[in-house]
Amino acid sequence: MSRTIFQKITSSLWILISFIPFFNGLGFVYLGNKRANSSWFLEGLLYELPWIVGIITISNISLASLFITLAVLAQIVSIIRSIMLGFNYQKILDKSSEIDKSFGDKLGDLINSLWVLISFIPFLNGVGLIFKGKSSSKKSWIIEGMIYEIPWIVGFLTWNIQLIRFIAFEIAVVFYFVSIVRSIMVASEVKPLYGNENDSFSKEPKDKDTREAKIEEEKTVDVEDNDGAIPAFHFYEKKFKDLEDIYPSKEKNTMELIERRFAPPQLTYTRFKKVVDDSHETFYSQLNSAYNILDLSTEYSSKVEEELKNKIVVLNSIIKGLDKLSEELVLNISQVESESYDELEELFDEFSRVTSSVKNYE
């Protein structure tokens, strides 16, 4: 499916981070975590390492100068590498079955990630994770944020004890960079469509009778769904089944309208029928692929969940495409005697390109 210039630009903005001293490796950290690519993630950390060591050894001018020089050279390399990776990443997205989010969705994600900026503020770099942990009811992030703040607090409380203050601030500087990396990782984590998996699967009822009833219910579910998806992916399994139920009626409705508008054996009928047939093949190919992922998954994985979310988006896009075709056919049937059906033809061509691109990717 073709991507607009705007979508290509917005998916390349991470490259600009490479031009910022001290933080030039964070673009790789972000992209590596987002795409579950450990080599990109580690490459970003390597670009940050000379800066960290240079700041820690600032009391030794000659040693610090050496590492700062290495850091500057590493930044030049990171700029070149980010541009190279940017081109390759665009090719990956062009071939991918992922559908880009709308501008509104991207803006919403950006606003929800503004807390990351707090991590770039010395002395307060742990507050962002504390805030995110409270808003997400995740205690581990709250504790982690507090740990990043402790060295700063110890350093200020022991200001008159030079040795302790020096060690505390050295640790604080290391934690400062770690907190930035961790904040970017948390912000770019895949968000479950069903909400917080901890809320859905980890919280136990406090009441004894309710707890016993829940255990009996889980036994029943285990018997019924023995060959189904793991509990963390039940939401997706149900969603795929719902889409599987919806698609045949949408396809049938579209074909009936095509037959009414272009009675066979018109060439136009044959052409439009092929588009719907291709969508049928693509839909069930994607659906079977999704079911295979569910069957093979034995434990929760954010990378697997991202792929399941992409499958849902693709399947939904095919169904919405059929809806648009049906709407346009209904409006166009009243123009049977007319040769003007440019909008309808354009809509079929666009739908054909979408299904073909997904099929080619597979």
Please tell me about this protein's structure.
The structure is a single chain. Residues 193-206, 218-226 and 336-340 have low confidence and may be disordered. The chain is built from 14 helices and no strands. It is mainly alpha-helical and 362 residues long. The protein is 73% helix and 0% strand. It has helices spanning 5-10, 26-34, 38-56, 61-95, 103-112, 127-135, 139-157, 162-187, 197-201, 208-224, 234-261, 267-296, 302-333, 342-361. The chain folds into 3 domains: 1-95, no CATH class; 117-193, no CATH class; 231-359, no CATH class. It starts with a helix and ends with a helix. The chain crosses the membrane at residues 12-31, 51-74, 110-131, 151-178. Keywords: Membrane, Transmembrane, Transmembrane helix.
